[in-house]
Design goal:
Number of helices: 6
Strand order of the largest sheet: 3-2-1-4-5-6-7
Largest sheet: 7 strands, parallel
Oligomer: single chain
Helix content: 25-40%
Structural class: alpha/beta
Number of strands: 7
């Protein structure tokens, strides 16, 4: 029997692949976002991150902006502050996301919730990129990484609003990559699977409670690598695509899910 890879075996040695880079990472106070902020700092980048409320703690040197990226005003505030703090923004990581399950099915998701999910999980990235791309185009360089979700690959009815918004984000990134590439800007997507994070844990627990399963982590048994993901697993993929190591990669969608969803 194969021995599953455990989180403690994931390499922790910093890779200085982001030295000299400036990065804006949305939703960086917890979960995948917090792990990505830490990875970028360890990689040598200067980082601005954001969230809707003040975080408990951040790595030394990270600048934090309180901004609600589900709104036009919040995105504009964040873009302006990031440019004031960093000057040129080399990397944008559109990680912010939120949703809640509707266990009654698709007809239980009202219109307002569809709109809310589109705003935070899709339009936030569209708007932030639109605010920062002109400067990237002018410099002829930049990297954008959009964080999607594996629910787009097998969408459950209880999360169809979230899956649809993230699927739109993935499609948008593919089209944007085609336009931005000739102008020196790379655009890629990272699609995480079941990753331990406060938001995802709460959603999984709600679904588990509804169906009467024993454990919110029972999904790990269906993952070929034998465990739930950690934020650091996804952060490594994001850092790679953002760095010059991925200089000839654009328009890609990197699935990071321990092999759970089989894709062609």
């Amino acid at each position: 029997m194969n021995t599953p890879v455990v989180a403690s075996e994931v390499p922790a040695t910093p890779v200085l692949d982001l030295v000299g880079k400036t990065a804006l990472i949305t939703g960086g106070s917890k979960g995948i976002g917090a792990a990505t902020v830490a990875r970028f700092v360890n990689g040598g980048a200067r980082v601005v991150t954001s969230g809707r409320s003040q975080p408990g703690s951040l790595p030394s040197g990270v600048e934090y902006v309180v901004a609600d990226v589900s709104t036009v005003d919040g995105v504009n505030l964040l873009a302006r502050r990031a440019q004031e703090i960093l000057g040129d923004v080399d990397v944008v990581v559109n990680n912010a996301g939120a949703s809640r399950p509707h266990l009654g099915g698709v007809l239980d998701i009202d219109d307002a919730e569809w709109v809310d999910d589109l705003a935070v999980n899709f339009l936030a990235a569209v708007r932030l990129n639109a605010a920062l791309l002109p400067a990237m185009y002018a410099r002829g360089k930049g990297s954008i990484v959009n964080v999607s979700s594996a629910v787009t690959l097998s969408p459950p009815p209880a999360m169809l609003h979230y899956a649809s918004a993230k699927a739109a984000l993935t499609t948008y990134a593919t089209g944007l990559a085609a336009e931005a590439g000739p102008r020196g800007v790379r655009v890629n997507t990272v699609t995480p699977g079941n990753v331990a994070s406060p938001g995802a844990d709460a959603i999984r627990q709600a679904i588990v409670d509804a169906v009467g399963s024993d454990s919110a982590e029972s999904g790990g048994t269906a993952i070929p690598l034998g465990r739930m993901g950690e934020g650091s697993d996804v952060a490594e993929a994001i850092a790679f695509l953002a760095s010059d190591r991925a200089a000839w990669i654009t328009g890609s969608n990197l699935v990071v899910d321990g092999g759970q969803v089989q894709t062609a």
